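Q: Hi! First time doing this. I have a protein sequence and I read that you can turn it into a structure. Is that right? Here it is:
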Amino acid sequence: MMTTISRRHLLGGVGSAFLATALGLRSLPALASDIAPSADTVVFLNFRDLRDLNPHLYGGEMFAQEMLFEGLVTLGNDGSYHPAIAESWSISPDGLTYTFKIRPGITFSDGEKLDAYAVQANFDAIIDNKKRHTWLEMMRLLVSAKATDANTFVMRMSKPYYPMLTELAVTRPFAFVSPKVMKNGTTKDGVTSFVGSGPWILKKHVIDEYSIFERNENYWGKKPAFRRIVVKVIPDNQTRILALEKGEADLIWGKNMVDSDALNKYRDSQKFGIAVSDPTSTRQIVLNTNRQHLSDPLVRKALQHATNKKTISQGVFHGFEPPADTLYAPTLPYCNIGLKPYEYDMKKAADLLAQAGYARQSKRAPLTKNGNKLELSLLYNANSVPEKTIAEYLQSEYGKLGIKLSIRGEEEQSYRDNMKNGDFDMVFNICWGTPYDPQSSLAAMRQRVYGDYAAQLGLPDKKQIDERITQILVSTDEATRQELYRDVLTRLHDGAVYIPITFETNKALYHKRIDNVGFLSNQYEVPFVDMTPRK
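A: Yes, that's right. Below is the predicted 3D structure, encoded as structure tokens:
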């Protein structure tokens, strides 16, 4: 019988937001004509300021960086590679040398020429800050990146690296700024302005209020239909929706920019449209195999069977985040390998705990083993209403088995520090998502980047898992690579290190005067270029 989640839990975040609005949060003030919705202007709502848009660092809003800056290649929605600043490329038979032919006649929006020498200037600036970028395996393997003439850029690697083009296509750091805005030929200490070659130009930025992007009339590629994009900062979810309803904005877009309750409200609206992407990433709970109780795989598997993902998907997310049975969605490359899900089955969970040696003296007594109670803690990001809701639900569900689950919310930096240091029994996390999965997030498991490394230390085959991940990254044979992925993903699945909860999706709520609101393979890129006015 399906268990239901208390609506008190589900509405806690929404209700508090409405209360905050009632206590003083207000809708947008009357907008000046240049930042109001119009036939040639889309007003987009974001929860925070654009911040530092230098694409060689990691402080700015990625959707805005995608508007301004470009790299050598880009990713299609099917995962294929497409020309961008490079109009073509070739890879040597040994997989070590990449030769890019730079598209002729391109300029940055300040008029500076974007040729192979400008590309090299950007790579020189990135390499000057190499330690900041070694989360990308490519930076560890890169030997040289040089322009051989104005139209040719050559990169040489110490080993073959199959995700090379993917990492060149992601938002940062391999995007290009005008050499004129660099400081002494580098960007590690910032840039003087945000000048790229993309389809938009940043014309005005009022910190914590709004920004105005205008169409780059000299852009080499597809020209946007709209002339202007205004990005308005509204931190509160409900105030964003109120602004949309009052006609003060056109678009709310992003995984956490509109909650599922609100999205559900507009399913059949005549005025507003909703859109939901394919899975972008996996919401999960990481189990620390180095902790006393969780070192036993039977306990970890019992928790898998005791987690009702379908109830969470429907109760918390109205189905907008589908239930997840595996660490990565089978729609991702190399991940459709037929792993058997851990079905929701409380009886099986109880049997596994009994096999592990845990027993309870009465129906309501806690589970114990050798006098030790089965007590676990679950860490979540205090800023995440869904994580808190799920944590409270699991606390109740696991309690039915005799497991005492303590839940603890911490502010984001503290939460991340504890996760990275392995200071947790169980912790919420989200995998890196498209287009970084599975290759980049698996690569990071070999280091103390997030909680994965610490969580896996109790696995007897941790060393073999890391070795196979390294082999994946330098593999040149497709069949061999697929088998290596199968081995790694099967080991992690059978080891029950991760409890997949739901597959995160990108979501959009928009005024129907706009057509072609959708999603791209890069989960952070808002497809403003594709949007058109409704005729």
